[in-house]
Design a protein that fits this description.
Layout lengths: L1 E6 L7 H13 L3 E6 L10 E3 L4 H10 L2 E5 L2 H10 L3 E4 L12 H9 L5 E4 L2 H12 L10 H16 L1
Helix pairs in contact: 4-6
Length: about 160
């Protein structure tokens, strides 16, 4: 069973991203999904919660085989530190998902980080999921050199 943890963050619902998981769940019987979905008004075919405690977040993040996340810095950094393969989706202002496109800027600056697939639609999500499952996308064990690459990426993003 492939355990997936999804987090939309605290900026409200992100139904477009959660719908990618809904489609995955319909097509695969070997996934167990838990999603922190914010104040979404939709019902999903897997376990969800609007909010979870930091302890539960840490437990679910650590136990997951794959993490699906909005393009929030905290989640990306945690995924890198824990060596979790991630599928990351940026919220788009044009879709009413955020007030601006800073998450797309985050994606631009983190592109190329090992173990992270940045996607924007269902097809890209499905491809990234398959690549993670078959080992084409894998995370590196966390080490100091990766920490410095991450810091350099953040520094480059902040200094732009």
């Amino acid at each position: 069973m492939i355990k997936i943890f999804c987090s939309v963050g605290s900026q409200g619902p992100f139904d477009r991203m959660v719908e990618f998981l809904e489609a995955l769940k319909k097509n695969r019987g070997d996934v167990e999904i838990f999603a922190q979905v914010g104040c979404s008004e939709k019902s999903w075919s897997f376990a969800t919660a609007e909010k979870i405690s930091i302890d539960e977040f840490n437990e679910k993040f650590s136990a997951a085989n794959i993490v699906v996340s909005h393009a929030g810095m905290g989640n990306i950094i945690r995924g890198v530190e824990l060596g979790k393969p991630m599928i990351v989706v940026g919220r788009r202002a044009s879709f009413g998902e955020h007030r601006n496109d800073h998450q797309l800027d985050t994606i631009k600056n983190f592109r190329g980080m090992p173990g992270i697939a940045f996607v924007d639609n269902q097809d890209e999500f499905d491809i990234a999921f398959k690549k993670i499952v078959c080992g084409e996308i894998k995370s590196e064990p966390f080490d100091k050199s990766l920490r410095y690459r991450l810091i350099d990426s953040i520094r480059g993003f902040v200094m732009e």
